[in-house]
């Protein structure tokens, strides 16, 4: 790590701490040449492989943007969207892979979105899963009803599709 003050090619780590979200590490460093102190933030990279084959870095903002469209007119706040995007990122990072297909991101969105707002879930799923008939909607709605009935019988049961 080059010193930002004198460009010396080395620095010494004085302190390391995980950041608030637990996904990055903050390090306080000191330059042995000039004595200047500075902070670096380290994160593990996570890349998305799009259908076209293009690889780009994961973006919570892109997740929020895609879900925001499905939530239009629904009682969903920006804070809700930010929390959903964080849950999606945590789910994807737990796979341990540094590159993941865009399709997997969509699958990771479905569970938390369903918990957040079922209408938004149906909207997103209809586009993401390419519903092409009323039967597809009916099947999705029927599955939601079954899951509601199951949850009403045993509120401690959770859906493990996330």
Number of DSSP strand runs: 6
Look at the helices and sheets and give the structural class.
alpha+beta
Specify the number of helices: 5
Strand content: 15-25%
- N-to-C span: 39 Å
Helicity range of the residues?
Answer: 40-55%
Number of domains: 2
Biggest β-sheet strands, sense, barrel: 3 strands, antiparallel
- Which of globular, elongated, flat, extended, rod-shaped describes the shape? elongated
Low-confidence stretches: none
Radius of gyration: 21 Å
Order of helices and strands: EEEEEHHEHHH
Instruction: Compute the average pLDDT.
Output: 89
Strand numbers in spatial order across the main sheet: 1-2-3
Cofactor: Zn(2+)
Protein name: Transcriptional repressor NrdR
Domain ATP-cone: 46-136
Family: Belongs to the NrdR family.
Walk me through this protein's architecture.
The structure is a single chain. The protein has 162 residues and is α+β, with helices and mostly antiparallel strands. The protein folds into two domains: 11-41; 45-150, no CATH class. The protein contains five helices and six strands. The protein has helices spanning 60-70, 78-93, 102-116, 118-128, 134-153, and strands at 12-18, 24-30, 37-43, 47-49, 55-57, 99-101. The strands form two sheets. A three-stranded antiparallel beta sheet has the order 1-2-3, with no helix packed on it. Strands 5-4-6 form a three-stranded mixed beta sheet. Strand 4 (47-49) and strand 5 form a beta hairpin. Helix 1 (60-70) packs across helix 2 (78-93) and helix 3 packs antiparallel against helix 4 (118-128). The longest helix is centred in the last third of the chain and has 20 residues, at 134-153. It is elongated and about 70 Å long. The protein starts with 11 loop residues before the first strand and ends in a 9-residue tail after the last helix. The mean pLDDT is 89.
